[in-house]
Amino acid sequence: MTTRENEKMTNWQTYRNGNPRSISNLERLARHRATKLGYRMHRSRSRKGRDNAGEFMLIHKASSTVLLGAGYTANAEMILEYMERKRTHAAADHSTHH
In sequence order, what are the residues at sequence separation of 6 or more whose Cβ sits closer than 8 angstroms to the Cβ of residue 67? Predict the structure, then answer.
């Protein structure tokens, strides 16, 4: 992957034309990327409370493990950053083993 392609993948805050993404579009992007990586993004449907901050949880589909946002504490930006760290970490591991 070229540096330019990598910049496109990592700069999720803006569209390709440089305009900033709105919160709803960040949520859609996070859900799309989560699905591609085998994760699910759940939004709390219950009333906010002690065990519910009213945001999102990122769950690994195959194992149903909560990866981020236990108690619905993660926002879309946090989830996108988490997935980006996972992607770059996996790419670094892959390049060192080949």
Answer: 39, 58, 59, 60, 82
CA distance 70 to 93: 27
Q: What does the alpha-carbon distance between residue 1 and residue 74 come to, in Å, rounded to a whole number?
A: 30
- At 10-36, the pLDDT tens digits run 576 776 777 777 778 889 999 999 999
**CA dist., res. 92 & res. 7, Å (int):** 16
Q: Following DSSP, what letter does each residue of the chain receive, concatenated?
A: --HHHHHHHH-TTB-TTSPBPPHHHHHHHHHHHHHHTTEEEEE--SPPBTTB-SSEEEEETTTTEEEE-TTT-B-HHHHHHHHHHHHHHHHHHHHH--
Residue with the larger pLDDT of the pair 3 and 88: 88
Nearest alpha-carbon partner for 39 in 61, 56, 15: 61
| pTM attached to this predicted model | 0.73
